[in-house]
Amino acid sequence: MQNSSGGNITISVILLFIIGFALIFITTTAVITYKILNSREPAQTAPNTIPIDSSSQNNTTIPRYSTFTFIGQLNTRTRDQTHTVVVDMLLEYDYNDNFVQSQLTGRVNQLRDFTRNFFASKYYSDLEPENREELKLEIMSILNTRYLEPDTVKGIIFNKLDVMEL
């Protein structure tokens, strides 16, 4: 009976060694694989740009901006009092520029008032879809000369710009 009990202990010890070896092997393989995957260098791009199409030969990039969203949705009437304007305007500025972000946040009420007054000063015909790019340039120019440091706002996005007849 001792031989069979001794045999069971030997098999148990061998199984423990095999399991221990397997755990060490799996852990080592996982660590090596993790290091290999994380050691790859990311694609080199300029810090404030996003590649448009990496397969093209022109390697064109578009600027990467942060977006100021706190103006919110505003409602007003057009200058000719025939339409209601609902606008949610976003301002783009240099990526991760904390000074600009705090400047915009500190002037949020002025920016809301400006936005409401700007659209209230426009006629319905000024707000037609074909005039949207011109509106964006005009808004950007006013913000960068009257309210903020020059060249602070890099772009305007109309998250919503609905013009509805009364």
Fold and architecture overview:
The chain has 166 residues and is α+β, with helices and mostly antiparallel strands. It contains four helices and six strands; from the N terminus they run αβββββαααβ. The chain has helices at residues 2-38, 98-106, 108-120, 132-147, and strands at 49-51, 61-63, 65-68, 73-77, 83-94, 155-165. The strands form two sheets. Strands 3, 4, 5 and 6 form a four-stranded antiparallel beta sheet that branches. The chain has a two-stranded antiparallel ribbon with strand order 1-2. The chain is elongated, with a radius of gyration of 31 Å. It starts with a helix and ends with a strand. The model is unreliable at 41-47 (pLDDT under 50).
Condensed summary:
By secondary structure, the protein is an alpha+beta fold. The chain has two domains: 2-61; 65-165, Band 7 domain (Tetrahydropterin Synthase, Chain A, 2-Layer Sandwich), CATH 3.30.479.30.
